[in-house]
What does this fold into?
Amino acid sequence: MQENVRLARHTTIGTGGPARWFATPGSVDELVDALRWARHGGIEVETIGLGSNLLVHDQGVDALVLKLAGELAAATVEGKLLVAGGGAANAVCLHRARAAGLGGFEFASAIPGTAGGGVRMNAGSYGCEWRDVLVDAIVCSADGPRTVSVDELDLSYRHSGLAPGEVVAQVRFQLAPSSPEAVKERAAGLLAQRKATQPTNKRTFGSVFKNPTAELGAGRAIEECGLKGHRIGGAVISPRHANFIENVDSATSADCLALMAEARRRVYARFGIELEHEVRFLGPLELPAL
Ligand SMILES: Cc1cc2nc3c(=O)[nH]c(=O)nc-3n(C[C@H](O)[C@H](O)[C@H](O)COP(=O)(O)OP(=O)(O)OC[C@H]3O[C@@H](n4cnc5c(N)ncnc54)[C@H](O)[C@@H]3O)c2cc1C
It folds into this structure.
C-alpha cells in the first residue's frame, strides 16, 4: 500500500491531488485483500482505469485508490471470446482481437480507457457500446468475486448498475470472426472520423456532459452559448468541440470545474436544460446548483 500518490499523472487531463492510499493489485486475490483491508479500516475505495473520464479534486482523495495491474490488466482470446482484465487498455484488447481474427470491438479503439472503466461508464461510440459486446464480468467487493451477466449490470447511456466501491476485475466480450486487415481498416476509419471533429491530441477527459437529448448534443448547446474557446485559468473549452475541456497551461481541477459551472449556467439560461456531467468526480468536487 503506497501513501499520498499523485493522481494527476494517472489522468488524461493531468490535474488533481494525491490519493491518501494507492495500490495496484495484480490478481483477484490481491484485489479482494485490498478491499478487505479498506473495509477493516473504514476506508472508502475508488478504482481508476486510465483516468480518461476523471476529474480529481486538487486537494486529493481521502480513499484507497486502486489501479488494476498484472493479470488484471492483460487480455487473451478464447475462441470467439475476448477475456480482458478490468484494467486492460482498450487498445490492447483491440490488438489481441485483431491478431486473433476477431471483429466487433473496433468502435472502442478511439476510447482511451480500460475494459473495466468501459463497464462502469457503458462506454460507446459510433452507435455501439459496451453492452452490445459484453457477455459478463467478474465483479469484486470485500465479500469476494462474483460473476455478473450483462443484463444484471443494468447498462444504459453512460450508466451501469455497479454499486460504489465495486470493482470490475475481468470481462468477457463476444466478438465475431473478421480478417485482421478489415479490423484495422474499420478502426482507422473511425479514428479518422474522430480526428476530424474532436481534440484527439490534447489533454482532456473526453465528453464533459452527457448529451441532454438526441436532437441537441451538449457540444452544440455549449457552442451556441458562445463558449468555444472560453478560458478560465489554464483550462479552455475546446475550440474544436465544445463538449471537451482542454488543459492548455497547467490547469487545475478547480479551473475545469469553474468552466463546467459556467457552461451549465449559460446552457440553462438559454435552453432551460440542466446538463448532467459525464466525467466522474474523485474527491469532494461539486457543481453549484442552478
Ligand atoms: C479523447 C477522449 C475521447 C473519448 N471518447 C469517448 C467516447 O467516444 N465514448 C465514451 O464512452 N467515452 C469516451 N471517452 C471517455 C473515457 O475514455 C471512457 O469513459 C472510458 O471508458 C473510461 O475508462 P477508464 O478506464 O479511463 O476509466 P476512468 O476514467 O479511470 O474512470 C471512469 C469511471 O470508471 C470507474 N472505473 C474505472 N475502472 C474501473 C473498474 N475496473 N471497476 C469499476 N469501476 C471502474 C472509475 O471509478 C470512474 O467512476 C473519451 C475520453 C477521451 C480523453
In short: The mean pLDDT is 96. The chain is about 25% helix and 25% strand.
